[in-house]
Every structure is written in C-alpha cells, then in structure tokens.
C-alpha cells in the first residue's frame, strides 16, 4: 500500500496534467492532400501528444462547411482563394504552403529532359495526352501551359491544342480498376507518349508502372495550383500544427507525394 | 513489407537460374547475317567508328564509352550538357584506325558495334575483333535505307526496343516522304549539282560514293558523276567544273563557300553567279558526307527543301528542332537554329 500510493498519485497527476495539456485539433483539408496530411498529422500527434481530427473533401465544400460554423482549427485548401475567403470573415493570414504543379509523365523511349520537353511535345512523332479542360482543372492547367509555350515558340499553343489527346477527366474517359490510377493505365496502354498531369498523380503513376518517367516542367512553362493554409484560432497547438505543416518536416512529406515548393508562378 | 518478404525468393530464383529474360545471353543476327551472342545486359559499348558512335549516342547515350575522337567545344555545344566531355578512344575501322585491341579490352565493353559497309572487309574485321577480344561484335548496315533496321537490331541488343522503334520510324517516315515527293519530278528536271570538298573545293565525290549518299538520295544529278562515272572520291580541275556549269554547288566547307563568291574564276560557274551554294550545317555532326550516319537524315530533308522548294514548302526550322530533340536530346534556341542553318 505504501508503495502504490505515490504511484497512483503520480498516475493521477499525469492524467490530470495530460488532460490539461493535450488538445484536440480539427484540420480540414483538400482531398488531394489526403495521403500527405494523414502522414503529417500522425507525426505531429506522436511529437506533440495532441490529437488531430482530419476531414478531407473538395476545398469549396470545406469552405462552406467552415463558414457555416463547423468547428475548425486549420484549413488546408487546394487553392488560395477559398482560405482567403474564410480569412476575410474570420480573420487570420493565409500562407502558401505547397504547390501541385503539372509534370510530364513520359514513356521511357522519349528520353525527354526539361529542356527538350516542349520540342518533344510538339514533335509529330510524339502523342501528347492531357486531362479534359473545363471538366478537370488539370486539363485547364495543360491548356494554360500551352498558352505559355506561345511565348517561347510562335504557333506552339495552337499546335499543342490541336494535337492534345484528352484522355482523362472527361465524362467518357476510361475508369480504372479500383487499385489502379488512370494515369498509369493510359500510359501502359500506350495511349500517349507524354502525358501532362499533376506531379502528385505522376508520382503515383510512376510507382505503379515502373519505367514511366517523370519530367519536371521547366519554369518558363510551369503551371499549377498553389495550396493555401489558414490557422483559424490562436491556441498554441493550432499554431504549432500550422508551423509543422509549412515547416521542413511537413514540406518533406509533401515532397514525397509530389507536391512542390509553394512559390511557383502562374496560379490560376 | 511485401518487397522485403519477396526478396529472398527473388534471390533464390536468381540463384537457381530462373532469372528474368534480360539476364540471359541470346544470339542476334546482325546486318551481315553473322550470329552474334549478345549478353543479356549491355551497359558498355565500344563504337568501332564514328558512324556507330553517333547511332549509339542517339539510341542509348549512357552505354557509349566514348567517341572515336573527342568532340570539339563547338561540336559539343550542340549536345546537351549532360553528354559533353565524353573521351575519344580511337577507332577500329576506316582511315587511320587508331585504337588497338588492347585499348578496347581496357575499356571492358560488353559489346563492340560497327556501322557502315557490311562488305567482306568489314565482316572479316568484325570477326577478327570478336575472335581476338572475345567481345561480341555487331556489324550494322549504315546506308540511309538500312538505318531503320540497324536501329531495331541495336535496340534489341541493348534492350531499347521502344526507343529504337521511335527513331527508326522517324527515319522511315522522313525518307519515304522525300522519295514520294521527288518521284514526281522527271529526271531531266532534277537539279544538277557539284559537290565541293576540301578548302579549294576541287575534290569531289562521284555518284554512288558514300560521301554523296544524301545528294543521291534526293535524286540530284551529280555533274562529276555524269562526266567521270560512278565511284568514290575524285580530284578535279576548276576548268572541269566551269565546263560542267552546275546549277547548284553543295559543300560542307564554310571556308570554301566564303571565298568562292569573290573568286573571279569561280564566278563563271552558274551556281556561283546565282549564289546557289548550299553550305551544309556542321554541328554536332555534319549534315552531308562524313560521318555517314544518322546525321545525314536531317541532311536529306534539308537538301530536299533547298533543291525542291516548291515540293517541300514546310518551314525547315520546326523539322530541325524536332530532329535535334528526338535524336540528340538537345533543344535549339532560335539563335542557335539560325547559326546552324547559315554556317
């Protein structure tokens, strides 16, 4: 008895102090962030002892949910506009914490480099695949990239738009089996030699179909989305999680999944 | 986890010899009909001569042990940075063969490749190299119309079938397009040209010579060939050239082209009076003549456009860009393209 009393007391104090210190945070994040944010939240929980509740969904829907009063500590969106909207009403500053740029996913025999990519996309021997503009933002980004190419080579935009095969994102696009990504599938079927898609998709496709190559888009052509993060309350744990996501640890996880540094040009 | 679990089984499979297909040697029949046993994995290739080195570079630059002579800075400028600075290891074939078999062995190649004539001289050379070094030696046809199949053969040997098919398809399409369009021109209406070699322009190559294969391919009439006959290289006199009075002069010597316009003797030749002197672009490899390799494919397209402008109205610049990015992995800036096309 004598021995157990201090132990019980210690346990009680730990629980009490733990309850006082541990915090429950709610992070709402864009669906495309599911894989990296799950990893980042798990790491943060281990390090800090706080609990992070995750909610993934389309960024626009999350914005509505937050504005209609759903309790939220952090909002990570696939653009800057939605969190800026929320900040306009609730206060706070949106920081750009990641970007999802377009990458070129290529068949190995094309042997493309960032330097030769545009010439190869223009080559009559090379089939160029994209997602469908209007139906899918990745398709819109591809068309923006074509417009940027015009500044490098006169006539390039029209030639690229004329030859682009819109293979994914449209209503009649092929549906991959549950365990496959559509990008790896169309490339394995050799429907295209070069396919323009988000770098995050390209990373998944190249894991799925080894041999496919990922070629970064040169800065002169780069397009893509900038992801914005908004911390919605001043409590220390929420601020810490925000710092963790935007800091080197979060960045490393995001990079692993194909996200880029936040400050890239030409956000839509 | 799954990988870690399967690794012992993979190692066991390799140990038992149930390796993947690429790990096994297999016989390949080369362009001369020789059966050559090529290792399953080829990572180091020795190019016996300049034409083979160029084809290898375009197909699998990471396997190329070196050029037969190191490229000049001007030549290297037209290759991507990554592939500059490859050493020169001498050559086994052709004029002034400068590499001995010890030098070949020292580089530990998995394969030796020669590309060009597949006549008896070169068959016996390939047999000798293979016999004395024990390194499999492929002999591939280097004529323009043989290049597509040579690419495919080499692609099979190196496990680069898809890239070989891409490049072979380009060559076939280009040569086919040029032949189809030129076939509509009656022989009598085809341009008469003189091919000027050497600094004074008084060396030439006769019809059927490998040096003028690109010109022959576009159906141009070689004035020296018409007068002297078929064959190889020939030294001629200015009087002969004046008498032949060609409508076009083709040369790969910018120096000759620069001085010939101011030379009163040459000015009596129609091509000089009309300023119809076509100077072949030089970099990274000359577009006509030497080395007789895939570099001449863009030369054929260029000659076709220059000799038959009405039949080939497409601007040449995008075609050249395309060739350089597909084959050499090099994107040309506008300035580089202009400099290249006006040597």
Automatic annotation (TrEMBL), chain A:
Give the matching SUPFAM superfamilies.
Answer: Periplasmic binding protein-like II (SSF53850)
Name the keywords, alphabetized.
Metal-binding, Signal
Q: Name one GO biological process term.
A: molybdate ion transport
Signal sequence: where?
A: 1-22
Q: Name one GO molecular function term.
A: metal ion binding
The answer to keyword Repressor applying to this record is: no
Q: Which InterPro entries match?
A: ModA, ModA/WtpA
Does the record bear Transit peptide in its keywords? no
The family note in this entry says: Belongs to the bacterial solute-binding protein ModA family.
NCBIfam families reported in the protein's UniProt record = modA, PRK03537.1-3
This chain's protein is named Molybdate ABC transporter substrate-binding protein
According to its UniProt entry, this protein's organism is: Oceanibaculum pacificum
From TrEMBL, chain B:
Pfam families per record: Peripla_BP_2 (PF01497)
InterPro entries annotated for this entry? Answer: ABC_Transporter_SBP, ABC_transptr_periplasmic_BD
CDD domains tied to this protein: HemV-2
From what superkingdom does this record's organism come? Bacteria
GO biological-process terms attached to the record: cellular response to iron ion
Q: Which residues form the Fe/B12 periplasmic-binding domain?
A: 44-311
Query: What's this protein's name?
Result: ABC transporter substrate-binding protein
- Which organism is this protein's natural source? Oceanibaculum pacificum
């Amino acid at each position: 008895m004598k021995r157990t009393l201090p132990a019980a007391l210690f346990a009680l104090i730990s629980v009490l102090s733990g309850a006082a210190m541990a915090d429950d945070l709610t992070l709402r994040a864009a669906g495309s962030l599911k894989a990296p944010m799950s990893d980042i939240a798990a790491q943060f929980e281990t390090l800090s002892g706080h609990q992070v509740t995750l909610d993934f969904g389309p960024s626009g829907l999350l914005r509505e949910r937050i504005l209609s009063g759903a309790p939220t500590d952090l909002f990570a969106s696939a653009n800057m506009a939605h969190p800026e909207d929320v900040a306009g009403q609730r206060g706070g500053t949106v920081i750009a914490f990641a970007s999802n740029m377009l990458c070129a996913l290529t068949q190995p025999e094309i042997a493309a480099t960032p330097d030769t990519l545009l010439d190869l996309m223009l080559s009559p021997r090379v089939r160029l695949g994209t997602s469908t503009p209007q139906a899918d933002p990745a398709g819109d980004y591809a068309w923006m990239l074509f417009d940027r190419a015009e500044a490098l080579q006169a006539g390039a935009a029209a030639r690229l738009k004329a030859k682009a095969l819109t293979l994914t994102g449209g209503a009649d696009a092929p549906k991959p089996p549950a365990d496959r990504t559509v990008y790896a599938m169309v490339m394995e079927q050799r429907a295209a030699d070069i396919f323009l898609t988000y770098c995050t998709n390209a990373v998944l496709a190249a894991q799925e179909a080894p041999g496919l190559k990922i070629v970064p888009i040169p800065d002169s052509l780069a397009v893509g989305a900038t992801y914005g993060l908004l911390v919605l309350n001043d409590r220390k744990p929420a601020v810490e999680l925000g710092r963790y996501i935007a800091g080197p640890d979060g960045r490393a996880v995001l990079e692993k999944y194909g996200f880029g540094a936040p400050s890239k040009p030409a956000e839509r | 986890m799954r990988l870690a679990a399967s690794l012992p089984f993979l190692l066991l499979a390799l140990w038992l010899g149930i390796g993947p297909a690429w790990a096994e040697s297999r016989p390949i029949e080369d362009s001369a009909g020789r059966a050559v046993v090529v290792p399953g994995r080829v990572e180091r290739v020795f190019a016996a001569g300049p034409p083979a080195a160029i084809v290898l570079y375009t197909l699998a630059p990471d396997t190329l042990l070196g050029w037969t002579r190191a490229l000049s800075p001007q030549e290297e400028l037209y290759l991507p940075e990554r592939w500059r600075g490859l050493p020169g290891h001498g050559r086994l074939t052709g004029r002034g063969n400068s590499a001995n078999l010890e030098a070949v062995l020292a580089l530990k190649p998995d394969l030796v490749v020669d590309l060009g004539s597949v006549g008896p001289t070169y068959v016996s050379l390939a047999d000798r190299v293979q016999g004395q070094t024990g390194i499999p030696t492929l002999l591939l046809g280097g004529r323009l119309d043989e290049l597509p199949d040579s690419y495919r053969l080499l692609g099979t040997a190196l496990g680069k079938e898809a890239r070989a098919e891409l490049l072979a398809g380009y060559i076939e399409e280009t040569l086919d397009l040029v032949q189809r369009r030129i076939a509509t021109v009656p022989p009598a209406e085809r341009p008469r040209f003189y091919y000027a070699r050497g600094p004074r322009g008084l060396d030439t190559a006769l019809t059927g010579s490998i040096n003028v294969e690109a010109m022959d391919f576009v159906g141009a009439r070689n004035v020296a060939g018409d007068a002297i006959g078929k064959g190889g290289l020939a030294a001629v006199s200015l009087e002969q050239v004046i008498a032949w009075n060609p409508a076009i002069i083709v040369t790969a010597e910018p120096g000759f082209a620069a001085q010939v316009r101011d030379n009163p003797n040459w000015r009596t030749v129609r091509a000089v009076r009309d300023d119809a002197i076509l100077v072949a672009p030089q970099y990274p490899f000359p577009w006509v003549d030497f080395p007789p390799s895939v570099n001449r494919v863009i030369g054929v397209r260029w000659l076709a456009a220059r000799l038959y402008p009405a039949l080939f109205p497409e601007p040449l610049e995008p075609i050249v860009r395309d060739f350089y990015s597909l084959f050499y992995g090099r994107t040309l800036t506008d300035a580089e393209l202009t400099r290249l096309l006006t040597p």
